[in-house]
Amino acid sequence: MTLIDDTMTLAALVSTHPELARELERWGLDYCCRGNRTLADACAATGLDESTIVAELSAVTNQHQAREEWTTMSAVDLVDHIVATHHVFLWDELPRLTALLAKVTLAHGRNHPELRQVVETFDDLRAELEPHMLKEERVLFPMVKQLATASTPPAFHCGSVRNPISVMLREHDQAGALLARLRIETQEYAPPEDSCASYEACYRALAELEADTHLHIHKENNLLFPMVVRMEAALSSTDY
Fold first, then answer.
1. CA-CA to 224 of 20 to 30 Å: which in 79, 93, 137, 199?
2. Taking the mean position of all CA atoms in its chain, how far away is CA 187?
3. Across the chain, what does the average pLDDT equal?
4. 9: which strand partners?
């Protein structure tokens, strides 16, 4: 039987037990941008009963003993996984949600003026994520693959790989803040009583977008980026 250790960070919990990602989402515990907090500290900060959370997370973990492959991938494999899993999802889902939000707003905007703010925040999120993914796919990820096959430190146009990583980390924080705002503006993705099927599908999709993006950011912030920094440091240490 697996017992959750409340001294583990939220990031480490999801890396070790990927099935806990959605549970942490449900409790509002940010494991991506604020994944360096211990479970105990995060519970205390958000007013959650630590023993209840530990018991529920332990129960979920005991039902999902298999470990996800991405937790042990190489940097190159993890890059390919992130693109195939999360980037492809966002490239498809962001324009679909733009159209769905427009449809819902047209039908319900008069009775629910708060939808206009939801649309604005979502548009800001899309404007943040799409250029971000392009920079990863065209700049950072090719650098990662170059590092993986290099025997000496590559001469990158931007200097150290830490430089684009620092930009990506800032942009992750910005995306995280927009997702948090969306959750507030949608009343935690709860459609109103007079909502139609499209309204409900829209809010459900927004919740799924949040969960997927949080896991996406976690894989980069807490697994890929530290791995890449270590790779570059190792090459520099052997460069005589």
1. 93
2. 20
3. 91
4. 38
